[in-house]
Design a protein that fits this description.
11 helices
Amino acid sequence: MSRPPQALRRLGLLALGVGVLAVAVPAPAQPISEPDAALTLDLAALDSLTAEERYRQLSLMLLVTAGVDQPLYDVVARAVGLTAGQSTIGAFDPSRYTAPLARIVDQASLLAGAERLFAFSLANRSALRARLDALEASSEAAAFRDTQAGMTEDTILIRTAIADSLSAAGLDEAGHRAERRYREQTVVLRNALEYVEFKVELDRLTEQAIASVGGKLDAYQRMFDVETNTGVLDRRIRSAE
């Protein structure tokens, strides 16, 4: 059965519209693979990274392990079933500790990663600190710091995930004391990091206000000099004196 001319025109317009959309709408982009975000638990490999990535990793290592001592490490090692001198194998991936699902169903894996990071930090803390101090003293330090806006939040999330995993591991009283101490240090660290961010923002606003007021004062001084006969004022002041 033949279609009426009006129906044919509608079909033609519909086909044209579909063709235009097919040209105008690009194909879905292929997923872009992100670089491995795992921390490098090897000094030689760490030194081979770019300065910016080395700064990120060193900062995160020292922040997450701040306050970690041998007793706390021993608690973590016992929680993952290690005996003295043993250590788990693998890396420390910060992204796992900020993923809600892993924090709920994979706490044993999180503790194993924490054990590796704590062991590496305890064995190399002075070397890690020296490397970060050298980067902080470099001319690129300001640029490094500007790229780490989310590091404070990540640090608190990672430390909280480690503490939560410890709490769920069925620790003895000594273990619970170590876990509470790590949480308390996390609160202190969070307050310190928030104060640093607040001070940086306050300094920026202060400098901006000083620059703004300074420009206005200069303008007011020029207006006063132009519109006021300062010579007459000077003579009257001297006469009054």
